[in-house]
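Why predict the complex rather than its parts? Because the way molecules touch one another can change local conformation, and only a joint prediction can capture that. The input here totals 912 residues.
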Amino acid sequence: MAKVELPLIAVNFKTYPQATGERAVVLAQHCESVAKEYGVQIVVAPQTPDLFRVSRAVDIPVFAQHMDPGDPGRYTGHVLAEALVEAGCAGTLLNHSENRMVLADLEAAVRKAERLHLYTIVCTNNPMVSVAAASLRPWAVAVEPPELIGTGVSVSQAQPEVITGTVEKIRAVNNEVGILCGAGISNGADVRAALNLGAQGVLLASAVAKSDRPAEVLRDLAEQVVRE
Amino acid sequence: MAKVELPLIAVNFKTYPQATGERAVVLAQHCESVAKEYGVQIVVAPQTPDLFRVSRAVDIPVFAQHMDPGDPGRYTGHVLAEALVEAGCAGTLLNHSENRMVLADLEAAVRKAERLHLYTIVCTNNPMVSVAAASLRPWAVAVEPPELIGTGVSVSQAQPEVITGTVEKIRAVNNEVGILCGAGISNGADVRAALNLGAQGVLLASAVAKSDRPAEVLRDLAEQVVRE
Amino acid sequence: MAKVELPLIAVNFKTYPQATGERAVVLAQHCESVAKEYGVQIVVAPQTPDLFRVSRAVDIPVFAQHMDPGDPGRYTGHVLAEALVEAGCAGTLLNHSENRMVLADLEAAVRKAERLHLYTIVCTNNPMVSVAAASLRPWAVAVEPPELIGTGVSVSQAQPEVITGTVEKIRAVNNEVGILCGAGISNGADVRAALNLGAQGVLLASAVAKSDRPAEVLRDLAEQVVRE
Amino acid sequence: MAKVELPLIAVNFKTYPQATGERAVVLAQHCESVAKEYGVQIVVAPQTPDLFRVSRAVDIPVFAQHMDPGDPGRYTGHVLAEALVEAGCAGTLLNHSENRMVLADLEAAVRKAERLHLYTIVCTNNPMVSVAAASLRPWAVAVEPPELIGTGVSVSQAQPEVITGTVEKIRAVNNEVGILCGAGISNGADVRAALNLGAQGVLLASAVAKSDRPAEVLRDLAEQVVRE
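Output of the joint prediction:
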């Protein structure tokens, strides 16, 4: 499994039509090109049915958007770690605001991913929940105030205290977990602000996935990461 | 999209290790071989991350194990109809006992599948719930008493009244929906009993997916369907 | 248990501050006064912690806002039929849009309520889901297009086809179930329109529960029911 | 609101027939008698519809078995903090294994309870989840390995490392939160073992609620707490 490094740009494809099926492959290839061009870490998170076709097509890490806990056998319709590994995934988002998890399931999923060497990015909604998530020892936490998701108003510029609060609270108990931020991130200035506030990367979706020129958007983001 | 016909054998791969990743492809190919050998309709339902690789590898219909309602855009981690179509699916199971759905979501998912020309098999737990499901006008209903799932004790032999009750109640209001039965189906005798009771096919999982010789098991099942 | 009759006005107290604790008792007493004054059937649905104190204080039927299926023993935090009976309830709402239920649980809850002689009103969101709900044989179905709930735009005037469609589809399969309508019902004209379209009553909340003069609002509603 | 003190015996009434309706009042009165007799802190957690009648009848603290986050208005069928206060509750259990909560909702519920001066006991399943729960700053955490719940095999005797691990991990980050243990606690020896391992109380259910002589069972438990 390729190593995933910080700082990082994580692109959530959500269920955008522009990022579904073969178009998910094309978008992932744009991400790969910019990652290589700038030497920055970009990871992509396509829909579950697209994981296999995307992971075969690109060399950058492919993350699932969600993973269920539980061991193989039953669980019809669940997305287990074993299947993600077989589909070529390097990791998974967990607890996205559009797919919140029960605390015990979240912990079980982080442990399961750990055993199967999958990277985990746990999404959270505020500093205190971020600390709780960090105490489960995932690979990274991504704080995203839900009210800003999809707005184009970036958390790093509109609510900088969410990022600084999260960084401060997490670092008091855990020095190793990665800290990302999301919600409203759409350009290089947002990335710059996030990194300046102590985040080690960003999780974003619509600004890239819905753009007519995703490579341009990605270059603008990547430039700020390179400056790090 | 290939037409799916009744009577039918539907094989749910659940999350069995023997039916994950490349082994899902191999199992689907066994299903395809037997389907062609006997001229019977067999459909396979692999895990969501395996749908694309399986649908590329076989000509028999590939069903998802679950589908969420909702339209493209948000819904991180959800499995939408649009992505299933792109992954080559012919249809989807809905409301499996390991993945029950809220009534309004189930109806929305059936409507959405209809618009995208996906076949739907709605799983139910008893005759009265089967009627409710049938009234939503899916393509088929599969009644599976949860207490028999995975036991090897077949519903068609242990609880024949569940099948006859379901057939009778559904036919009083809906002449078109397919009626399948599941739970504990493991051999030709179980299939024969099911068909004799008025079912138009079976939904099964472990007997095929966990077998060392799945093709043999499938031939035993297929022979009874051919006799129909 | 007092008999509950159609036509009917059902007042959902939701979690309005004006309808919590002792204020729930006062509001229920207003409902009782108007019910007696006009000789119309009014039922009240206060929050679960308020059921006992309200049922002791009034003679009109008290409904829970939700009930879980399941038998006594485990289920910490669940609201079982047995406890509702002990709290003096005559029945329960089920599957409200703010508390949707899994289809199999909904059926189990209707059966359980039946055994304990509790009246059930199953909320639904459109005509087809209403038919599915009706096929489970609850005491009544209340169709409420979610997009109109709490708007003051009444379903009976804005979307009359939802009511006529529901009445027609349900009556094709079930002559006994009560048919109510909700969403945006706020005055006598809305009630009149609903009854004219074939509904046998209304389910409403904010227009009564948030009013400074709930008795006046109720009288306006009751007058139309009396005219029936 | 009466102050709740540690060490503590918390009695979860679950949905036992012996602890429903008027029998919940009687059981709570037994708890109150023993609490006064021994001068130990006992709290009771009856079902939601019984909260009002129990809190009126006894002076010991009454806890809900579950509370939903969310502010008054919508949320039909939800159990909000405001209604618990009106029903005379001193606090609430949260995240019981039979009623697990989404992480973000759990945090929101703890904050809401804090604002309304309700005590919170968050149930957890292992040491790591206990730390996550403790980082949300509830009043107390109760660790209960789900596989022991209702077995009569006590966590304090069968899995002492769960308690010591929980105490150690929590105290590394939070010196103020109470630490209880549950699962299989049924007699004084179990309580003694729990207290010796560093727990500040126990959460139990069936041993008291299903007993023919609950007061005797409670005395056996209380004696060990007094010795503390």
